[in-house]
C-alpha cells in the first residue's frame, strides 16, 4: 500500500505521524519504505540521517525524478534504518519543483519511479512525507499513492487548510483518478474547549467518508525525545501511551489495504 502523509499547513505533525505510523507498521511485521519528499528534510533528520541531507556526493530524488532513464533507481536511493528503509531528502530538493516544472508528466514522475522500480513488490507499505505546500512535489505524492493520511492540529486554524487540501485532492482526482482520504491524525491534542470542538469537527467531516477514521494523539514529551534519538516511539526507551494509537492507525491501514 502507498500512502501520502500530507497537509500544507506547517506544524500539523506530518513527519511525527509518518515516522511513528511507519514504526507501528514495522512493529506489526511489515517491510516499510519512508520517502522524505520535503526539501526541508525533517523526516531525514528525525531518522538520524542528517549527514546525508547535505552530502554533495549522494544522489537523491532531485537527480532521479526529472530523468526518465533513472525510473528504475528507487532502491539505489534507499538507506537502511533499524526500523524501516528510507529515501532521504537532500538540500538540492529545494530546487526540485523548478527542475520538474517543464518535464513531461511532471505530476506522475514519482508514480513512474514506483512502477519501474517494482516498489510494491519490495515493500508492503510506502509512506511519503510531503512538503508543507500544495506544489508539484505534493501532487506527485498524491498521484503516486492515491491514498492520503492527513495530520492536523486540533485548532480552528486547521479548518481552512483542510478545506484547501480537499479542493486540491478533487482537482487531482479529475485529472488522474480516485484519491482516498484514509484517515486523519489529530496531533498534540490538548484538554481545552477549542480542541474538543475541533475533534468533533474532524469526526463530522471525516467519519462519514467511507473507510476513513479519526485518531487522537495527545501531546507527549516522549514523542519528541524519540525524534531526538532518531527512532519512532516504538524503539525509544520510554513507554508512551500513544503507542497504542499509532498501532490502531497501522491496523486501520492493514484493514484498508485488504479491502
UniProtKB/TrEMBL annotation:
Q: Which residues cross the membrane?
A: none
Q: Where is the AAA domain?
A: 5-174
The record, for InterPro entries, names: AAA_dom, DNA_Partitioning_ATPase, P-loop_NTPase
SUPFAM superfamilies hit by this protein: P-loop containing nucleoside triphosphate hydrolases
Please give the Gene3D superfamilies that the UniProt record associates with this protein. P-loop containing nucleotide triphosphate hydrolases
What CDD domains does the record tag this protein with?
A: ParAB_family
Q: Which Pfam families match?
A: AAA_31
Superkingdom per UniProt = Archaea
Q: What name does the UniProt record give this protein?
A: ParA family protein
